[in-house]
Design goal:
- This protein is of the alpha+beta class.
- The chain folds into 3 domains: 219 residues, Up-down Bundle (Multidrug efflux transporter AcrB transmembrane fold), CATH 1.20.1640.10; 84 residues, Alpha-Beta Plaits; 140 residues, Gyrase A, domain 2 (2-Layer Sandwich).
- 55% of the residues lie in helices and 17% in strands.
- The chain has 14 helices and 15 strands.
- The strands form 5 sheets. A 4-stranded antiparallel β-sheet has the order 3-4-2-14.
- A hairpin with a 2-residue loop joins strand 11 and strand 12.
- Helix 9 packs across helix 13.
- The longest helix has 33 residues.
- The radius of gyration is 34 Å and the shape is elongated.
- About 4% of the residues have low confidence.
Length: 483
């Protein structure tokens, strides 16, 4: 016995088409309502994140001193520095700070490592600099008898020279060796710095160990790599003084009695409980791996940022209106369907801005406005193919299906090349260019979805019409597809 396959009835197919369209429109409507609520409510979970140039705030550029660091370790140290500064600015309440590493190597022989810090909402630059500047640089150095001898000789010679001539002129040397005038403390670097610090906490000393009872101390725990280095330093220098420096100032110089292998160290410097607690907190939230120096500051006022945002929104609305007008005038009913798809495209982009979230800058806003025009590019290609099929006698539904198939290769190639351009801009560009490239790339992907799925679903849902029909639908389609 042969089996016969039953084909779905025309009514059931039409019902499925309308059901898909209604569900699609319902989802778009719900998404629009969600975006609107998040944009207007002061207690929204996912509000828009505005960048410095739109919300106002402070723009700081720091230069990192990596002269004494192995070039192979610089990228890792700069990444640690970025994370440290980001944690630091987060704890004093800055909303959505942006901390980025930039390298300048095109105009100088030696690469310059910079740290760019953007603090939206912070218009007091001095306050921002002070808060970031509080982040300490922790260093462990060994006492050097040679440096101490040079320092003592330098002080004696300068005293004699000053008493005889009233001034110190030229270099001072001992046994033919020039002495460095900049010796501040007779300690040598060990390579153990705050980059190896894992955490710090407040403790109180007991009655033993040569420390006062209940003396506030700061206990620091190193990373596994730092603990190994600390153990090697203490093992090789038993009986020597280990100086603990904070921002270049000696705060403690205990004698190493034995090798310390537990990966922890105690900092004691006659602290009060509040001072020890603050030091522990500062170290925990950001002991800098390398020194940084402030190079430039810039402040963007809230009123200026609001003006830029207002003009950007107006430009976007104008661009959106012109695109809709063109599509409806030129393609009539298919153009109206494309406009619905364009509305869904804008809704999805705004939802992504809120949910990812994307920090919107003026450059990103420009990329979004530019993507509005490109969002209907795929629709135009499909409609032109649909015209050819409709004129040759195919029905509107058949023309739409064939048009999407034949236009796919051109849509794919055009969007892939644009996506490659956005990727290159994002990979090699500065922070401003990256904002543009990110929004532009997102727009390309979302526009392909809106054109190939939403527009196609709505077009195929429309009642079928042919060029020879005299129905109202045929005339509406024909007025746009017969041009």
């Amino acid at each position: 016995m042969s089996e016969t396959k039953t084909q779905p009835s025309e009514q059931s197919v039409a019902f499925l088409r309308w059901f898909r369209s209604i569900v699609l429109v319902g989802i778009i409507g719900w998404l629009m309502l969600t975006v609107y609520q998040n944009a207007t409510s002061s207690e929204a979970e996912n509000p828009f994140k505005l960048g410095l140039d739109l919300a106002g705030g402070s723009h700081l550029i720091y230069e990192a001193d990596v002269s004494g660091v192995d070039p192979l370790e610089v990228p890792e140290l700069m990444a640690v520095l970025r994370d440290v500064i980001e944690r630091r600015v987060n704890i004093f309440g800055v909303s959505e700070p942006i901390v980025q590493v930039e390298r300048s190597s095109f105009v100088t022989e030696e690469p310059i490592e910079r740290l760019v810090v953007e603090l939206p909402g912070v218009t007091d630059v001095s306050e921002a600099v002070a808060e970031i500047g509080r982040t300490p640089l922790l260093e462990f150095k060994l006492y050097s008898a040679d440096l101490a001898g040079q320092q003592s000789a330098l002080q004696n010679l300068e005293s004699l020279t000053a008493s005889s001539s009233g001034a110190v002129i030229g270099d001072i040397s001992i046994n033919g060796e020039t002495i460095d005038r900049e010796i501040s403390e007779p300690f040598e670097d060990t390579g153990l710095t705050g980059r190896y610090l894992e955490t710090a906490s407040l403790e109180f000393a007991g009655s033993g160990g040569g420390q006062l009872s209940n003396e506030p101390l700061v206990s620091v725990r190193f990373t596994p790599e730092g603990g190994k280095l600390f153990a090697e330093i203490t093992r090789a220098n038993v009986g020597e003084q280990l100086g603990i420096f904070l921002d270049g100032d000696l705060i403690s110089a205990p004698v190493i009695n034995e090798a310390i292998t537990g990966g922890t160290a105690i900092i004691s410097g006659g602290f009060t409980p509040d001072e020890a607690r603050e030091l522990a907190q500062n170290l925990s939230f950001g002991a800098l791996p390398v020194p940084i120096e402030l190079q430039s500051t810039q402040t963007v006022g809230a009123s200026l940022g609001a003006e830029v945002l207002d003009k950007g929104v107006k430009a976007g609305m104008l661009g959106f209106g012109l695109v809709m007008l063109f599509m409806i005038v030129w393609y009539r009913l298919p153009g109206l369907v494309a406009c619905i798809a364009l509305v869904s495209y804008i809704t999805m982009m705004l939802a992504l801005f809120q949910l990812i979230p994307v920090t919107l800058t003026a450059a990103g806003l420009a990329g979004f406005i530019l993507s509005l025009g490109m969002a209907v590019d795929a629709n135009v290609l499909v409609f032109e193919r649909m015209k050819e099929e409709y004129r040759s006698g195919s029905s509107s539904r058949e023309g739409a299906q064939t048009g999407f198939k034949r236009a796919w290769s051109a849509i794919r190639d055009g969007n892939i090349t644009s996506l490659l351009s956005a990727t290159i801009l994002f990979w090699f560009g500065t922070s401003m260019v990256k904002g543009f490239a990110l929004v532009f790339g997102m727009g390309i992907l979302v526009s392909m979805f809106s054109a190939l799925f939403i527009t196609r679903t709505l077009l195929i849902t429309l009642p079928e019409a042919r060029k020879s029909d005299g129905s109202v639908l045929a005339r509406l389609l024909g007025s746009g597809l017969n041009k």
